[in-house]
Amino acid sequence: MAGKNYYDVTEWLIGDPHEDIGAVINSIIADIKGRQTDPDTGEGGKPGAVIYIPTGDYHLRTQVVIDVSYLKIKGSGHGFTSSSVRFNTPESECANWHEVWPGGSRILVDREPEAGKDESAGAAFYVNRSGEPRISSVEFADFCIDGLHFCDDGQGKNDPENTYVNGKTGIYIACPHDSFRITGMGIIYLEHGVTAYSADAMSIHDNFIAECGSCIELRGWGQAAKVTDNLIGAGYQGYSIFAENFGGLLVAANNVFPRGRSSVHFRGVARSSVTGNRFHSFYPGMLVLEGNCTENLIASNHFLRDHEPWPPMKSYDNGLDDRFGLLCISGTNNSVIANHISETIDTQYLKPLGTKPVILHLTAGCGNYIANNHIVATTETSEAKDEETGSGACFAAQVGALLTADRLEELDVVAVLVEPESSHNTILDSGSDDQVVMDRKVNAFRATPSIG
Fold first, then answer.
1. If you average pLDDT over residues 246-274, what whole number do you get?
2. pTM, whole model, 2 decimals?
3. What is the assigned CATH class of domain 282-452?
């Protein structure tokens, strides 16, 4: 027996979840609040509830507003499949596909944000509650939030489905909160996947958040949260993982795909860790620390930058040139240790043409420790290939680019560039003597030993 605090949206008597699951969930939350009114009955009182979404398609036309603690909204499958591949495949090919849309327990965000409204107005799930204590233990698990389509961004040159713009957000948390969990979700084709303000002890774990303008944004301030074991990939104008004014953030064991403006972007973040991740990008600026980030550990990650191999997306980039750095750091007493950093790119794609790409760039701050990073910089001669679209072509192009190693030659790079605004840093075994550019009177340096 499920109990009175377990709700199935398809069995609730108010509304039709397939036509507007937002209105149905709001009605269920109203019922929870109407029944659970006493905050302390026998040292209990408000146990919260579970709202279950079976597999199927559910249109969301009304924003879900969550203002109760101990609420879990769960489905039976994240249902993720690439919409970008579908929208860049000729319709004649799609006609023979086994499936063309995301599946599982799928919520179709059919809300069009009104012009001039606050950004939260475009959210499918909006969490906000004032007063004490902070709202706590709200969970989203095992369902798909699908933004359906992107739209014209007004630039006059982009395919509307490749703009990453539609004003929609999957989950928007506007208030201070504690111990939230987002797990097993599929979040796709939204301008913002997850936006959270003032997070404490938040867990974003084992999700598939991709083909969104920005995937994960931890805004305002926060502490002691983690972004772990996710599959993530943002658009060329947005963030894959962003955090500001955060302390004690753990970013670990994520696989971050290309096309995001950055893989990780920290602003004013302190005493946090980025460890054991695999990052892949088609642009410079893979990891950015700005706004005096302090005492962060960047260790044992794999960074790979190469060039976009899939024809429909070759005309897009994040606007940064190769002097910016794959890793660009402004801050104090950060440690960048034992990372494997690969740049493999045909020299014709370097911006500006003929420049030496910068791998690690210290732009400001002091006391940073850069040690034992293995930098592999190579170039290859492009081969003319038939330009194909479609799922198989996208997969083959990207896997082929990853596995190509037989035509590689050494690429001349600046392994570490330390600007005059940054001093008293220690650079050890992260580049040969002629690959490191800095004032050696105000920075400590030991070159990677050269053979012979």
1. 97
2. 0.94
3. mainly beta
